[in-house]
Amino acid sequence: MAKKQVNVALIGAQFMGKAHSNAWRKVGMFFDLPVQPVMKVLCGKYPEELAVAERYGWQETSLDWQEVVAREDIDIVDICTPNFLHPPIAIAAAKAGKHIVCEKPLANSLKEAEEMLAAAKKAGIKHMCGFSYRFAPAVATIKKMINKGELGRIFHFRAAYQQDWIVDPDFPMVWRLKKKHTGSGALGDIGAHITDLCHYLVGEVSEVAAVMETFIKQRRVSEKDTGITAGAQGKKSSKMDTVDVDDAAVFIGRIKGADTLASFEATRFATGRRNYNSIEIYGSEGSVLWNQEDMNFFHYYNRKDPAHVQGFRRVHATDAAHPYIKAWWPTGHIIGYEHLFVHEIYDFLTQLNRKNVTYPTFEDAVKCQRVLDAVEKAAATKKWEKVK
Ligand code: SOE
Questions:
Q1: CATH code for the domain of 69
Q2: Residues of 25-60 as b/e, b for ≥16 C-beta within 10 angstroms?
């Protein structure tokens, strides 16, 4: 029997637009879905960026997101724009009764994130926030291990999300470095990921102390900022502009209802680190280590192992026993960054009719945003701040 079709509109055709397009295109080939996603329309800001639409698999293009979210035939709106556009698009889409997938961080501010959640709840639509690293089979396995008590009582959660793409002082100004477009810098972009991983794996952050820094305060304006990679290559003018967001944020925190200590580092200035998103969790029974640059593996230490083989073992998380893997390749045949988005969309589509969903929602995104907000306050006041 033919599956029910759900029509998708994707807004934002850059880096995340490409990752999500690939996910919508592949998900039905590798996973058995209850519905059939139809890639209806790709919406962008510039006609040039929409030249990829056909190649990515989209039926139509549009330069007008308002027109797109109002369309009767659209069921799902997927938001991959710069952050400042998330709230108006999501709120309009919710009002129009569309289900929503939205990139992280949910908004530039806590207030806007809360408004988005309220609009989604009021409309009764399904909402997901793109905390993609939850969908790594190794991370989902670690989650199961923690739930089963295999690590025992958790003492430490330690995360560092390190990149180096703006270390070069000649790297031009891009939207990710302007507060009005992005909210915060490394904190909201990549600190949001590790905050969410902490919430997902260990528990909610209840209070924080923080420091933040902007190492390079002025950057040359590029003639057209079209995103992270295009921005780097864009033609530069002689005009300078001020970077008004953090290049790095370091914070520590406590976990609600537990005596777990957490530490976080989000930086775009870890020279030599390209996309090193790493977590370490130390418990009374054992420990786990994972990092995204080696995402098919995690390290596991079991305190109960016999003394002569004590030590960390490297687990190849590509067995059918690891979440999502069965849909891909036989054991040992690794997957990559783009697969995380396929898993995300798979979870979203399989739970369209479920009351309680397992994926990260706007609710989780607001919890994350509360931490980001407290971190900015703590860095400014130089005091411990409670998370709202
Ligand atoms: C850029 O810093 C970025 O693309 C983030 O925005 C993504 O969320 C992360 O997955 C990779 O780095």
A1: 3.40.50.720
A2: bbbbebbebebebbbbbbbbbeeebbebbeebebee
